[in-house]
TrEMBL record:
Classification via Gene3D superfamilies: Phosphoglycerate mutase-like
Any one GO molecular-function label of the UniProt entry: acid phosphatase activity
Keyword Calcium tagged: no
Species this chain originates from: Aspergillus udagawae
Keyword set, alphabetical order: Hydrolase
Hydrolase is among the record's keywords: yes
The name this protein goes by in its record: Acid phosphatase pho5
Residue ranges of coiled coil: none
Gene Ontology cellular-component annotations: fungal-type cell wall
Length: 290
């Protein structure tokens, strides 16, 4: 069971990035201090709306390369599990970056000719409500999880915003007031959050990013914890629906184990949701006040 490989920002996150960068550009001022690199910096894709949501294709951390190399590593470890003459099914949710991840993985594991030689077949599972309780994307088909504003999917964003408000205002003040960048105007929590996001996304594409040097170690620790918060309350132990959705995967795995070797020796499932995949979890609470 795996998510997709490394990707560009989603359209929602990318839109935030571009909006921030356009606002700073429109201010038409020379930036100082930590943000001075923006005077000569360009976004990490020339075709953002084409690349958003898709696998990264360049740099040492390219998603296409990562998926292929994962297939190669699996082959070196688990080739003995392959059954000669038996076609392996690879399940992928209906998202292009997931489908591409599965295809690159298959090329690394089964060889570049995996489709022509019928060594494996890629089965794409739609992310639609008529699929009901499938094991790949239950978060997209559980209505109560989607519609429950207090305890469902959106609770992760609520708790994230609460924690962002504890650590981001000080960063915004440092970048504007202390570093003499007042002319760009106040930075919102989401704008600073977008800056922190761009460190990782640019690193995936270019191998490094000047955004990473903008923030202190403590500020990065807060960002990492904030990422834990959103997943904890959106799809982890802090969400009352997580166990039910994770049970689908657990039940399917249990059924395969009971069936024994006759059911097959290799099973590959790749998924995409806006969260981490819902798996059975042990209760745990982030050690901080939100």
């Amino acid at each position: 069971m795996s998510r997709h490989a490394e990707r560009y920002p989603t359209k929602n996150a990318g839109a935030r990035h571009l909006s921030l960068l356009n606002r700073i550009r429109d201010a038409n001022v020379v930036l100082n201090g930590s943000l001075s690199f923006l005077n000569n910096w360009t976004y990490f894709t020339d075709e953002p709306w084409k690349d958003f949501d898709q696998l990264t294709r360049t740099g040492p951390y390219a998603g296409t390369l990562q998926a292929f190399m994962t297939g190669v590593r699996f082959l070196t470890r688990y080739e003995h599990l392959l059954q000669p003459g038996r076609r392996t099914r690879i399940w992928a949710s209906d998202s292009q970056r997931v489908i591409d991840t599965a295809a690159y993985f298959a090329s690394g594991f089964f060889g570049l000719d995996w489709e022509k030689t019928d060594k494996a077949v890629l089965e794409v599972i739609p992310e639609t409500f008529d699929r009901h309780a499938d094991t790949l994307t239950p978060g997209d088909t559980c209505l109560r999880y989607i519609e429950d504003a207090d305890n469902g999917h959106d609770n992760g964003y609520t708790m994230l915003a609460r924690f962002q408000n504890k650590y981001i205002p000080d960063i915004a003040a440092r970048l504007t007031l202390k570093e003499q960048n007042e002319e760009i105007g106040p930075l919102t929590n989401l704008e600073v959050w977008s800056m922190q996001e761009m460190c990782g996304f640019e690193t995936l594409v270019r191998g490094s990013s000047p955004w990473c040097s903008v923030f202190t170690q403590k500020e990065w620790e807060s960002f990492a914890y904030a990422r834990d918060v959103i997943h904890y309350y959106r799809a982890g132990p802090g969400n009352p629906y997580a166990g039910a959705m994770g049970w689908l995967w657990l039940n399917a795995t249990t059924a395969l184990l009971h069936a024994g070797p006759e059911a097959g020796t290799t099973f590959f499932s790749l998924s995409v949701t806006l969260t981490v995949m819902q798996l059975p979890v042990i209760p745990w609470t982030p050690k901080s006040t939100i």
